[in-house]
Design brief:
single chain; alpha+beta; Thiol Ester Dehydrase, Chain A; ten-stranded antiparallel sheet; 8 helices
Length: 332
């Protein structure tokens, strides 16, 4: 019998600065359309043959597609530094799930662009007994221009033990907003002059399914495929902290993105906007989450108008699923 020995990339082995090799992804209209479809976004701007009027009819991706065309590849970072990621271990396999992500955008990625992504460990820290690792991924186009970056935090060790799977499915089934159901760009987007602190934003309701969760898990533009994880493998998921399959944090983030798009132009993301989303309660198959928010701040800075928003996602049981803060930027 051969004993398996592994250099596990656990919390103690993680060090700031550890990096993967760069990824290189060409942007296509088919990718943009598929990502929007998996994100359950019916906006015609992302469909094949269409584009955005804001960018002279050119197709541009949903902002949160940045996590796909410049992906975080934890197993590749581990391998590039001589380790085996916990997700791929043969002796101590477990997941290091999403905790939060903060994305910042500088310009769109257009069809025909080639995006180079570089990911590295930014920091690691302990909080209330749990251990977290934050990664920074930076994306630039073929001209060397910064497209965006995001900081992605994972839970490497969870102090609270396994979460219980809800037995009550809940009976509050919110309906999607009229504009989202119509599958069109809202006719009246907010302008900087029109918004006031305290204004509410257009709501969006999303029902998750295991089929969509599986498609999101399979959608990969770089890196090795993940055949089994807490999103698509019920048996493996039951052994991890959420006690069953859940959607990916970036999927929930794409729903927050879509909700904000009902109120703000795409340029408000791509002019230097940002979105920070924290995962609070798992978003499981069969759940319906309503995303709603309000304007929490408004100011002018360097000849630009900045609008701050707070977004909450609440499921049919009344649980807070996510909490997000966005900065939408006008002008610049």
């Amino acid at each position: 019998m051969v004993e398996i020995t592994e250099r596990l990339w656990d919390y103690d082995a993680v060090e700031p600065g550890q990096a993967a090799r760069p990824t290189v992804v060409p942007i296509t209209a088919e990718q943009i359309a598929e990502y929007a479809d998996i994100a359950q976004n019916p906006d015609p701007r992302y469909r094949l043959g269409n584009g955005s009027d804001e960018y002279d009819g050119a197709p541009v991706p949903m902002p949160t597609m940045a996590v796909s065309y410049a992906p975080l590849l934890r197993p590749e970072i581990a391998e590039n530094n001589g380790f085996v990621a916990l997700e791929q271990s043969k002796t101590a396999r477990r997941q290091t799930p999403f905790a939060k992500c903060e994305a910042r955008w500088y310009r769109p990625a257009f069809v025909g662009d080639t995006i180079t992504g570089v990911g590295r460990v930014l920091e690691k820290y302990e909080r209330r007994g749990s251990k977290f690792v934050t990664f920074r991924i930076e994306a630039e186009n073929q001209r060397g221009e910064a497209v965006g970056q995001y900081d992605y935090t994972c839970i490497f060790e969870y102090a609270q033990g396994q979460r219980e799977v809800p037995r009550d499915t809940g009976d509050a089934q919110p309906m999607p907003s009229a504009e989202a159901s119509a599958g069109r760009v809202p006719s009246r987007l907010l302008s900087f002059d029109s918004v006031q602190v305290g204004d509410t934003l257009a709501e969006l309701a999303i029902t998750e399914s295991q089929a969509i969760i599986n498609r999101k898990s399979d959608f990969r533009l770089a890196g090795k495929p993940s055949e089994s994880n807490i999103h698509n493998d019920e048996e493996f998921a039951r052994q991890n902290i959420f006690g069953g399959t859940v959607n990916a944090g970036p999927a929930t983030m794409s729903y927050v993105d879509q909700m904000l798009e009902l109120s703000f132009p795409l340029s408000a993301f791509y002019n230097g906007g940002s979105l920070l989303m924290r995962a609070i309660t798992p978003f499981r198959s069969g759940d319906t989450v309503t995303f709603g928010g309000e304007i929490t701040g408004k100011r002018e800075e360097d000849s630009r108008g900045l609008v701050e928003c707070r977004v909450k996602g609440i499921n049919q049981r009344g649980d807070l699923v996510c909490l997000a803060d966005a900065v939408m930027v006008y002008g610049g």
